[in-house]
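> Could you send the Diguanylate cyclase (GGDEF) domain-containing protein prediction when you get a chance?

Sure thing. Input:
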Amino acid sequence: MPLAALSAILPATAAVPLTHGVRGAAVVAAAIAVARRGKAWALIVAACAAWGALAAVPGPSLLMLLPYPLVAAGLVWLSRTGGPVAPGLLVDAAVITGAAAIGGWLIVVEPAGGRLGTGLAYVVLDLLLVAAALRLVGFGGRPPPAHLMLTAAVAALVGGDIVHALGSPAFPLHTLWTVGVAAAALHPASARRPRGRSGPVAVSPRRLAVFAVLALGVPVAPALVQDAPATALVPGFLGAGVALLLVVRLAMLASLVGKTAEALAYTRAQREALRDELAHRANHDPLTGLASRAALTTRLTGPQRHSSLVLFDLDGFAEINDAHGHEIGDALLIEVAGRLRTSFKGSVLARLSGDEFAVLCRGDGEAAARRALAALRPAYRIGGRELHVTASAGMVRISTAAEALRDADLALDAAKTTGRDRLVLFRPELKEALLRRSTLAGALRHAVTRGELELHYQPVVELATGRIVAAEALMRWRYAGESVPPLHFVPLAEQTGLIVPMGWWALREACAQAARWFPTAVTVNVSAHQLREDDFAGRVLAILKAAKVPGEGLIIEVTESVLITDADATRATLERLRSHGVRVAVDDFGTGYSSLSYLMSLPVDVLKLDKAFVAQRQDAITGAVLKLAEVLDLVTIAEGVEDEDQAGVLARLGCPWAQGYLYSTPVPAADIDALLAADKTRAH
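Output:
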């Protein structure tokens, strides 16, 4: 650049070779720089080389016009490397080019008398370069420095053409054009793409300043031409004022549009944020931050090769929640989630419901599941309290993703029913048991109406005399010609709620038999669901009245847990029955809460000592219970007596009544008739 400037003050004999040397060196440097940079730069450098060659070899001046389209094409090509150009930038380029056209006409063509020729061609081609350069840099975003340098070089080229048209030497400016192209090509940012060019064009002070200058200058320019009449200044300035007002007005409209666009963009961003938040809530548990059931189900629909699914259910969480409140319960769930995260790093953890969690892990998750169970056992310190909770877990190695949740849930149920705080792996027998249970549940709904249920009775004898004093009614079910064990269908009836209609059927049947056997009483088991029925006592008394059986002919058996749960309502119901002579027995005493305070306060007449005390010869405990019952004026029935030795021990300890296989298995009512007849015969 200093050499190009020096050529302007040197004599022609020295300036010409210096100019050719500088331009040749610049072309060579630029050609080397853009050898691998793309065709756009190559077109511009080729135009520089062509001008250098044409300037060094005398020839027609029209040939100097040929490289202009190459430069314009290269500039347009470069402007498109950053993506599509915003329409606003194209309009800007057109406005500024139009203003430049007026100046070109006045400076170059008008002095020549408006004749078409080489001057007009230079003006048109220079305007083409101006439009292309403005398109390259424009007002959108920040163009790379190399593009700014290239635009400056175009300005030097156009300026040289204007200087040449005015009759002055232009080779210094044309040299600066070539040197500027070389400098831009050598710049490290020449390969960088412009950014932020395709969005909406915002109103900026720079843009307004450019348009204001054009609005003022373009209308006045014709009046400043040599020999123009003085009166031409008046409409020129008026036109400039109007044009300036139009610029201001358009700027106001553009500002309003810009603010509206910003508001719309903000609204769109808010909507997208809300959508993202809703999607996050749908896929995550708000309390623990784990995945939701929906998110886990979605993950399970994908390919799950060599993966395992583990379900966890907290043991005793409901009691903690009830005793300490939901706030403590929620804090406990968060702590549990944290321990599960530590045990299953890199796995998908989800909270399925209140205290049920799921883990989808790669590979065999058995070892990690056992570590998790161990990690959940230590105490939790929450709100100044020390809480203890364990978990039951069911795991399935995924073969069919659609059945993974069901299979893992079956394994979890097995873990809860076989002792809790353990891991059970899914096996096909669990599915078979589920299908059988489902079939039994469907058949059980019609067992009463189809007459498939029947009652068997096991006698209760007086140990001192061997006389039958009562008979316990035990339900039996024959389905499809086979006898279904009570251990299978009674829990199923409890779970499905069928135990209520079945219980009322059993009570009616037992009271009908009691009418024939009285004063021998019948004992009937009552479930918690049945005891909570509206006007339970009234219905029982109505059944007794219909069967013409006094209250002394019925003993109702309930478990300890039933007595303790909702104790006030239970006490009122049982007191009403006892006022009519019905006796109340606590079944399986010693296996539940065994709370003496409840035993003393609740309306109880009979204790049924669990058979485990008899079978294991817990003589000291049995004796203590018998003494307790005697103090509380309760009758004790020892269950599960199977041999004479057991009966002898119980007799020595003072047990009044007993039942078991030693005396009789559960038998149909007709067999009880025979046993009662035998008792009468012995008595006579």
